[in-house]
Each structure stands twice: as structure tokens, then as C-alpha cells.
Design brief:
Length: about 575
């Protein structure tokens, strides 16, 4: 400015306004104020732009009183504020709790011809930034409120903002009072509101909005119902979720893949795997449903829980044909769920393919492959899996239990013993499962000194026996006709409060048969009935064999006929 005057140019309002605007943008309002005051000394009257710039500058400096003073002076001189001035004033009024003046600012915006939708947007933005959106219902009135009630776009903007900030009752009131009619738009709006509540974790609000929805005259909305089923499932309100699904199903609406996924997951979470299977059967009848990778994984888990081996096998090959791109979780899921449904060669191919693609098996997958290879006698592969898991730090006590059991069942007693030592060396306590595997292996191989040594180790380590332990002991002693030892085990069972279970009785009947104690074996059947333990096929087979072994052929025939009548 000084250079301009020195060069002989008279001062003008444009130059002053430019400088005032510049100082305002960097929040240097002391310099801007000095320039404003200097205008009068040089005989220049401030114009509309001058006042607008001063309002913006004081607004950036968050000085509400100064901004308000210039705003009032601007209007008093007959000038009009621009949209930026109005937004600045609303923002300051929102920050400084001046709702009365905010209402006046909105009236000014209406008077100068601002669009109602723009006014609403500015109002919401100002109060959102101030963190005081709850004050908007008190400000929103008059013609602006009337506009919201008749304009579906503005109505949706407002209720979405209300729901976002947990003003659900205010949103419901707007939706109740609205005057526009568009069922398709309204359904989409309700769905958006419910989804917004779900994403923010406000499930009770979603339920509240849904309960205030207009009841459909025709069929329920598929997408809204699906979202509500998911929300009720998250909340653990499974009866409400099931009711919604059954109503939707009875309405005759064709369900889509997303809805099926939600319902299957809901039943699985509720523990109703049979119902989940029923839903999957319904889905199979709709030929147009193509599951995605997430639904495929849910299907695998459901069929596994239901023990549907054939379904798992069929689904596995269906997944292969679907062309879905497998990720790490898919490999883990398929191996975990299909271990009993697929041939060992196919599982091995899957596991190798997973490693080749750079995916990481989890601990469960490693343990399953250990079990599969061990039971198939593929001990080299089992050992390789074990050491791969160990290198990756994914070995747990179940891993040791699994490979110890595999070695025991495969009569590889040296490997079993060395693995138990490695288990202890790695910081794991020898588990009850490992002890049971050793007892079973040593007993069946007739290594009774080792068998007794394991029992002694269990006592020294205070490892409590379970029914399986006692059943192993009864079986091993019974095979040798050591009835005294069997009796001692039974007494120990009773003392510790466990008592014989079905497996115990089956083993005892077999042992008594070997020892020629047929009457005692028959008495055990009566004892089982007295304890409400229902005999199974193994019970009858063991008793019949015991009778035959001791030349009680007529009795054996009677029990055989009885077994057939029982449908076993």
C-alpha cells in the first residue's frame, strides 16, 4: 500500500479489500482492523466486499462478537451477506450456543433466496462440526421444516444425520410427519437408516426404527428383513430372527444368496445346526443361487457339525467346479471340515497346494493333517507336518497328543516314547491324553512293565484318570483274564465318583466273557438298565460272544434275537 502511494497512485477500495481479505485468510485480524479503520482517514467508504471480508476474517479467528458486529453493520447499511458469510455466522453461532441468532441467520438465508436444501446442508454441517447436532430440532422450524416434510431428498438427509448422531426419536418423528409418498424411496431410506445403526453398533436403535416402519400391505422387503435378521442374531434374539425368516419364507418371495447366508449364519450361531441344514436344502432347490466364498465356508462348517460326510464330499467337489478363488481361510476351512469326508490323497494334495501358494496353515489344520497321516500310517508325512508346524511356532499340546496317539496305534513305541520326552523338553506337561495313548499302546503290545511305569508316572505327577483311562485298564487286564485287577479298577472308579460308563460296561462284559464269568456279564446288563445306561450294539455283541465262548449257545441265540428286536 505504501509503495502504491509513493508511486503516486491514489488509494482505492479494491486495494484495501484485497489486503483485508489476505490478512483475514492468515487470521491476522489486527492488521485487517487497522486497514479498515484507515479507510475513513483516507476518505474511502467501506463497501459490501469490505464487510464480507471482515466477517470471514473474524470467523476464521473464531471471534464471534466481532464477526457479529460486522455482520449486523453490513445488514444495517443495506448490503447483503454472501453464502460464505452465512455459513461462517451459523458455524460461530453453533459453537457459541446462540440458537436464537442462528434462527435469524436462517431467516436471512431464506430472504436472500438460498435454496432450502442448501440451507439444511449448511445448518447440519455447522452443528455437526460444533458437536451440537442435538440442537438442530429446536432450530428447524417454519418454512424450512415444511420443506423437509415435503421434499424426500432433504427429509432423507436430515433423518440420516439424526440417526448418525443417535437422535432416533427425532428421526422417527420426521418420518411420521412427512408428506411425500414414494414407497420404493421410503423402503430404501429405512434400509439405509437400519444399516447405519448396525454399522455403528446401535442395534437397539435399529430395532426401534424397524418397529416404527409402516407395515407393508403386500410382501415384506427382502433387504430390510435380511438386515433385521442379522441384527437380531447379533443381539442374540434368535426367536425374533427366526420369526422374521419364517414370515419371509411364507410370503412366497424368492430369497437371494445374501439372505440365505444371513439365515444360515443365524441358525449356526443359535446352535440350531439342523435348521441351518434345512435352510441349505431349501437353497439347493433354487437353482439360481450361486454361493460366494463366505457362504461356501458356512456350508462346510454346518455340514461338519451335522456329521454329513456325503454332503461335505459333494460340496467340496462343487466348490472346485465353481471356480471360486481360494484364499488362506478357505484352505484351512476345507481341510478342517472335510478331513473325514475326503480320501487322504486328496487332503494331502490340498495341504501341499496350500503351502505352494504361500498360505499359512493354522494350528488346527496342522493337527488335522497329523491325525490323518497318522491314522493312515503315513508317518514320514506326519513327522514332516509336525516339524513344519514346530518351526512356525504353531505346535500345541493337541499336536503332541495327536502324534503320540498315532505312533501308539501304529505300534511305533520308540517314536511314541521319544515324542513324549520332546513334549516335556518343549515345556509341555504330559497330558492325560498322552498318558492314555501310552497305556493303550503298551498294554496291547503286552509290555506290562512299561504299562505299570506309565501308571506310576501318572500318580507321581498327580494326573487324574478319566473314564477312558479306566476303560483301557479294564480292557488290558480283561484280555489277560486278570479279574482281580479288573475288580480293583472298578473299585477305584467307584471311589473317585466316576462310575462305569457305557464303554466301561462294554469292556467289562468282554473281560468277564474271557474269564468265563458269564453270569457276571449278564448281571452287568441288568445293572446298566438300573442306571439308565442304554446298551448299544457293541454291548450285545460282547455279551453274545461271551456266551458263545462259554458254550451258552441257547442264551446267545436269545440275546441275538433280542438285539434284532431292538433294531441294533
Amino acid at each position: 500500500m505504501n509503495s502504491m502511494e509513493y508511486a503516486g497512485f491514489p488509494p482505492n477500495i479494491i486495494a484495501y479489500n484485497t489486503l483485508i481479505t489476505g490478512f483475514g485468510k492468515i487470521s491476522n485480524m489486527d492488521s485487517a482492523q487497522c486497514l479498515f479503520q484507515k479507510l475513513k482517514t483516507v476518505g474511502i467508504e467501506p463497501d459490501e466486499t469490505t464487510f464480507r471480508s471482515m466477517i470471514e476474517g473474524w470467523g476464521r479467528a473464531n471471534n464471534y462478537r466481532e464477526a457479529e458486529r460486522y455482520y449486523m453493520e453490513l445488514k444495517m447499511l443495506g448490503f447483503k451477506p454472501n453464502s460464505s458469510n452465512l455459513y461462517t455466522m451459523l458455524s460461530l453461532q453453533a459453537k457459541h450456543n446462540d440458537e436464537e441468532c442462528a434462527c435469524k441467520t436462517i431467516d436471512d438465508m431464506i430472504k436472500i433466496g438460498c435454496q432450502y436444501s442448501s440451507i439444511l446442508s449448511i445448518l447440519l454441517q455447522a452443528y455437526e462440526r460444533a458437536g451440537r447436532i442435538q440442537m438442530v430440532p429446536l432450530i428447524l422450524k417454519g418454512s424450512l421444516y415444511e420443506h423437509v416434510l415435503v421434499n424426500q431428498t432433504s427429509c432423507s438427509v436430515l433423518v440420516m444425520a439424526y440417526v448418525k448422531h443417535c437422535l432416533v426419536d427425532d428421526a422417527i418423528e420426521i418420518l411420521f410427519e412427512k408428506r411425500w409418498r414414494d414407497s420404493y424411496f421410503e423402503d430404501n431410506l429405512y434400509h439405509l437408516l437400519i444399516c447405519s445403526c448396525k454399522e455403528s453398533g446401535h442395534y437397539e436403535s435399529a430395532v426401534k426404527i424397524y418397529s416404527h416402519m409402516p407395515k407393508p400391505n403386500e410382501k415384506p422387503n427382502l433387504h430390510i428383513t435380511g438386515t433385521m435378521i442379522d441384527i437380531y442374531s447379533i443381539m442374540g434374539q434368535y426367536s425374533e430372527a427366526k420369526d422374521l425368516y419364517l414370515k419371509l419364507k411364507s410370503s412366497g418371495i424368492e430369497l437371494d444368496m445374501i439372505l440365505f447366508s444371513i439365515v444360515v449364519r443365524m441358525y449356526a450361531k443359535a446352535g440350531s445346526v439342523t435348521d441351518a441344514c434345512s435352510v441349505l436344502d431349501t437353497m439347493d432347490k433354487q437353482k439360481n443361487i450361486v454361493p460366494d466364498i463366505y457362504l461356501f465356508r458356512d456350508m462346510l462348517r454346518i455340514y461338519q457339525k451335522c456329521g454329513m460326510v456325503d454332503k461335505l464330499s459333494d460340496l467340496y467337489y462343487k466348490i472346485l467346479k465353481s471356480g471360486v478363488d481360494w484364499d488362506q481361510e478357505m484352505y484351512n476351512c476345507v481341510i478342517n471340515c472335510c478331513a473325514r469326508a475326503l480320501p487322504v490323497d486328496e487332503l494331502s494334495r490340498l495341504y501341499d497346494g496350500m503351502l505352494q501358494r504361500g498360505f499359512a496353515p493354522n494350528t488346527i489344520t496342522f493337527n488335522i493333517m497329523l491325525d490323518v497321516y497318522g491314522k493312515s500310517g503315513l508317518f514320514k508325512k506326519a513327522k514332516k507336518v509336525f516339524y513344519t508346524a514346530k518351526r512356525r511356532g504353531l505346535i500345541d499340546v493337541i499336536s503332541y497328543n495327536t502324534i503320540i496317539s498315532a505312533y501308539g496305534q501304529g505300534k511305533r513305541l520308540k517314536d511314541m516314547k521319544s515324542t513324549v520326552q520332546k513334549m516335556e523338553f518343549s515345556g509341555f506337561s504330559v497330558s492325560l491324553e498322552a498318558y492314555n495313548s501310552m497305556l493303550d499302546a503298551y498294554g496291547k503290545e503286552g509290555q506290562m512293565e512299561c504299562f505299570k511305569s506309565v501308571l506310576q508316572r501318572m500318580k507321581e505327577s498327580n494326573c487324574a484318570s478319566d473314564n477312558y483311562t479306566y476303560n483301557i485298564m479294564i480292557n488290558i487286564y480283561g484280555e489277560r483274564g486278570w479279574i482281580e485287577e479288573v475288580t480293583a479298577v472298578l473299585e477305584e472308579l467307584r471311589v473317585c465318583g466316576l462310575g462305569p460308563d457305557l464303554c466301561s460296561y462294554n469292556t467289562l462284559i468282554k473281560a468277564y466273557g474271557i474269564a468265563g464269568m458269564v453270569e457276571e456279564a449278564v448281571e452287568l446288563m441288568k445293572e446298566m438298565r438300573g442306571k439308565d445306561i442304554r446298551p448299544d450294539k457293541i454291548t450285545y455283541v460282547n455279551l453274545i460272544n461271551a456266551l458263545k465262548r462259554n458254550d451258552k449257545f441257547l442264551e446267545a441265540v436269545k440275546w441275538s434275537l433280542w438285539m434284532k428286536q431292538m433294531g441294533l
